[in-house]
From TrEMBL:
One of its GO terms (molecular function) is transferase activity. SUPFAM superfamilies: Actin-like ATPase domain. This is Rhamnulokinase family protein. PANTHER family: SUGAR KINASE, XYLULOSE KINASE. Keywords: ATP-binding, Carbohydrate metabolism, Kinase, Nucleotide-binding, Rhamnose metabolism, Transferase, Xylose metabolism. Its EC number is 2.7.1.-.
Length: 483
């Protein structure tokens, strides 16, 4: 039997899952305990997440994971870790009760806020302090747009989504470091908050919970909840609670591949390099790069590119209009659509908001060749999106290497759900002229499990130890550049 079993709760923008991770003989296997949908909803006048519904799914998933662990002949779960998409937060009252909706980062409330804040703290200064790209949805700008912080009772707080789940599980309040970096208010050194920025945004630092690092124990599952779920008072361990931090930890690279080039491909495509130190110069800021905090003090120097969001939102439009569309068929058709006819810029913030995405992509497309004025069929539109993504990957990875003064890597690792997109992988290999290594697709859950397993002693502490286990645990597909 396996030596330890842990549960990874992984919440994405379109779906969530609770996975059972079994760790034995230097390998991890993942068993899905529960999968569920997640979606943006208009609530109280804002695009929001249904945290109540997610919490119900998480509870169900943890109970299931514990049953699965016992089915494997194990005593139950040895620990639990939680990750989710970055930047969003909930407000909690003194007793830990949720105060109002968790507003989603694609909501319009931050329109113009980054510019207003830049009038108080120049953009150059913000970047020099934090190393974080000034995207409209950074927590700092969401907090600056927040009208619910004044008049809160003493003892209230603000918690990022995975930390909010951690509070619900344990009653403890902490801010996990990797996700804290995405707020745009953490010092690039990681040594605490940039109080100058919190001041400028009108945020009382007392609202923020103390930091916790991946591998540290947050607490244990509250007794009443443990009984309800039948899981025991299991430890909850901080992991790379930013999904991208967990995903990049699970890139199956070798130590000698440094700096590791990656795309974490999901709703977003996060493309860049894993570095030892941030790149804080003006050229990096001007190019729109960010320095996110990783597990074990690594830095992800990357660019946010709209990824499968463009495709999934276009599909949502076609379905609203009564068509029946399914991704696999669409990709097969796109593979046969004529090449190099249309382009868009998938880094354009105009694609941030939801709604009528097929129309918006069509209107934004520039014509490279052919007589058509815009992509007309779904296959042409998807081909336009994927070719544009591949070209953007080439440009952004090249830029990342130039800015970090690193050579172009010999291979590019693509992890996450988007790594299943063979057409995109091949287009990427062709555009870059380097090998694309695809997988694992459940990188985020694997990274989450791996940090817990290491904290439990089931994975060694040596550098590269986690990645060696990941390489043993996954099947990869390699795409060689053509032409
Ligand atoms: C991906 C992700 C990404 C962030 C965005 C808000 O899920 O966490 O790293 O930039 O969501």
């Amino acid at each position: 039997g396996a030596s330890v079993a842990v549960a990874a709760v992984d919440l994405g923008a379109t779906s969530g899952r609770v996975m059972l991770g079994l760790v034995e003989d230097g390998r991890i296997s993942l068993l899905p305990a529960h999968r569920f949908e997640n979606r943006l909803e208009q609530r109280d006048g804002h695009l929001s997440w249904d945290i109540g519904a997610l919490w119900a799914e998480i509870r169900h998933g943890l109970a299931q994971a514990s049953v699965l662990a016992r089915d494997q002949g194990l005593p139950g779960l040895s620990s639990i870790g939680v990750d989710s998409w970055a930047v969003d937060y909930g407000i909690v009252g003194p007793g830990g009760e949720q105060a109002g909706e968790v507003i989603a980062y694609r909501d319009h409330r931050t329109d113009g806020v980054a510019d207003a804040l830049a009038a108080r703290v120049p953009r150059e200064r913000q970047f020099a302090l934090t190393g974080i790209a000034q995207q409209p949805f950074n927590t700092l700008y969401q907090l600056a747009a927040e009208d619910r912080l004044t008049g809160l009772p003493a003892g209230s707080g603000v918690l990022l989504v995975p930390d909010l789940v951690g509070l619900l599980l344990t009653g403890e309040r902490r801010t996990e470091r990797t996700n804290a970096s995405t707020t745009g208010a953490l010092l690039a050194s990681g040594d605490g908050w940039a109080s100058e920025l919190l001041d400028a945004a009108g945020v009382d630092p007392a609202l923020l919970a103390p930091l916790i690092a991946p591998g540290e124990q947050l607490g244990t599952v509250r007794p009443g909840l443990a009984r309800e779920l039948g899981i025991g008072e299991v430890p909850v361990v901080a992991v790379g609670s930013h999904d991208t931090a967990s995903a990049v930890l699970a890139v199956p690279a070798r130590e000698e591949d440094a700096p590791v080039a990656f795309i974490s491909s999901g709703t977003w495509s996060l493309i860049g390099l894993e570095l030892r130190a941030p790149v804080l110069d003006e050229a990096a800021r001007e190019a729109g790069f960010t320095n996110e905090g990783g597990v074990d003090g690594t830095v992800r120097f990357l660019k946010n590119v709209s990824g499968m969001w463009l495709v999934s939102e276009a599909i949502r439009q076609w379905e609203e209009d009564g068509a029946r569309v399914e991704l696999e068929g669409l990709l097969a058709a796109a593979a046969h659509a004529p090449a190099d006819r249309f382009r868009i810029d998938p880094t354009d913030p105009a694609f941030l908001a939801p709604g009528r995405m097929a129309d918006r992509v069509r209107a934004a497309a520039t014509v490279l060749s052919g007589d058509d004025r815009f992509p007309s069929t779904p296959a042409e539109l998807v081909r336009c999106i994927l070719e544009s993504l591949a070209e953007t990957y080439r440009d952004e990875l090249t830029a990342a290497c130039r800015l970090a003064r690193a050579p172009l890597p010999r291979r590019l690792h693509v992890v996450g759900g988007g790594s299943l997109n063979a057409l995109l992988n091949q287009l990427t290999a062709d555009a870059l002229g380097v090998e694309v290594v695809a997988g694992p697709m459940e990188a985020t859950a694997l990274g989450n499990v791996a940090v817990q397993a290491r904290a439990l002693g089931a994975i060694g502490q040596e550098p590269g130890g986690i990645r060696a286990v990941i390489r043993e645990s996954t099947e990869l597909e390699v795409f060689a550049p053509r032409g």
